[in-house]
Amino acid sequence: MTQISYQLFCSRNFPPLGDTLTMLAETGFKEVEGYGGLFGDIDGLKAGLDATGLKMTSTHIGLDMAEDDAANMIAVAKDLGTTKVIVPFVMPDDRPKDAAGWAAFGARLAEAGKPFQDAGLVFGWHNHDFEFVATETGDLPLDLIAAASDDLMLELDLGWVLRAGHSPVEWINKYAGRITAAHIKDIAPAGENADEDGWADVGHGVQDWAPIHAALQATGVDHYVVEHDNPKDHARFARRSLATIQKF
């Protein structure tokens, strides 16, 4: 049974959180994915989830949160019923500049993940497009990160894979068994949706979803997280994207 979730970062520009959670529940979502900015008000977050019946099955947290506040984040995850903790980003100035640096970054991630894994949680990395820029050795940063530890899982963002000029299906197959969740994200046709940073509602862009879904299912990926980085209307995005995925 495929889990269908919604990354709450999509709705960061549409406060308050309680209204977003109500909208998602009424749209038909059962699960959401959190992000670090939500953890400043744990009581409010938990109350909103309890009121709507939504489950935060996965969440993003900053690498600093993973390294410096692991015990607290593990406790929060356990309290919320979250089973997957994903580090999603590293700022441009903090990104390694060569292959050795990316390999070291992967090792750093793997080390940060150990307390979470010891607590029974999945720990992983979520890609953007900068991990597909070849290093001086010809290696891609995403491969160097993944090579650090077989226990470090991936949340493969299919929108960023395509935007980087790569085939989502090829990368799904490449890391079969290592993908704990997939970000289901679509890209608008060239020149369209400039006011939404070129992203599109799932099923209303250029992604070829039939082979992508088939590859995800064949490799055992059963957690789909809907995402759009900058929707003008998050309720429209949620409604149309869920309808598309339900037709997969």
TrEMBL record:
Xylose isomerase-like TIM barrel domain location: 24-235
Any Pfam family the entry gives: AP_endonuc_2
Keyword list, A-Z: Isomerase
InterPro entries: IolE/XylAMocC-like, Xyl_isomerase-like_sf, Xyl_isomerase-like_TIM-brl
Gene Ontology molecular function, alphabetical: isomerase activity
PANTHER family named in the record: HYDROXYPYRUVATE ISOMERASE, INOSOSE DEHYDRATASE
Protein name from the UniProt record: Sugar phosphate isomerase/epimerase
Organism expressing this protein natively: Yoonia maritima
